[in-house]
Amino acid sequence: MRHCYFLGSTSPDGFKTSFSDIINDDKFYTYILKGGPGTGKSTLMKKVASMYPDETDLYYCSSDTSSLDAIVLNEKKIIVVDGTAPHTFDPVFPGVSQEIVNLGDFWNKTGLEKNKEAIRYLANENSLYHAKARRYIKALAGINNDILFTSANALLTEKTEKYTEKFCRKIFNSNEKSDFCPKEYRQLSAFTSNGYCTCEISDEYKIYTLKDNLFSAGDLFLRKLSDTAEKCGVKCIVSKSYAFNEPIYEHVLLPELKIAVMSSNFINNFTTEKSSSINLSGFYQKEIITARKNTLSFDKKVSTEILSEITKTIDTALDIHDRLEKYYIDSLRTTRLNKFSEQFISMINK
User: How far apart are CA 222 and CA 318, in angstroms?
Assistant: First the structure.
């Protein structure tokens, strides 16, 4: 079964990814692609992924959702990943577990030299807009944390925990506990040029949607759910939200059970027709929420407006990146790159 994720997400403190956990798994061999924009990294990964449509997990770029940042061939135990900034990866055990593939070897450097001033200008502009997006995300996190602080004080913790325990009994066989299975972390939602987006969930999953615009009940529900999965020896994939000063749990996948539990709130606006909805609004003390109604309404309005500016800023950065990328594409020795790509794919097939 194929899964789709983002490689990571921009956070108030910069780009965050847990992909190193997969690269450091000694069962996998990793090819780390190096080279500037427009050197064919994403295209090469798409070609490899098309050869193994059922076993390949796809990791998209949050800055450009049409571009791949990594693929994981689960049966072949092979990873191909873009190792350039902001997600720089380098071999830990070169030639044993990882190796570098330098696609920069296929540049026509004369063409790049001719346009060096334009390239430097666009690269700097791209960096400036990404830095601006991070500042907006930091502001967003501060506002969202005010909502989180209020809701945490109003949370009916015991009621939420009991409800979650009942849900866990429904989906886990509590009489047959296996060895402890540590939770894994992937990124299902991220800030993108199209807004705050969530990757598509496979049709094979039964989806439960947690409706919670106050965040605290959903976070507690997912933490308790993932802790129970660990104890029951069930594989659990956790996705965190970086729209807060400290990330909270946003989604949980249980691949072995084909169950997905997804948060739905005014930040991610996650919806799907095929889900079972769980409304968590009744898990807060009504009098506290009512007393802070005006403040919470203001926070949500400001948060939504900042989120809109984040989207515009990332979209501008993407436009600049596309212009920058064209200089590199025009300077590629395409025939040599295509020949190498064929050899690379053939090597993986063998």
Answer: 33
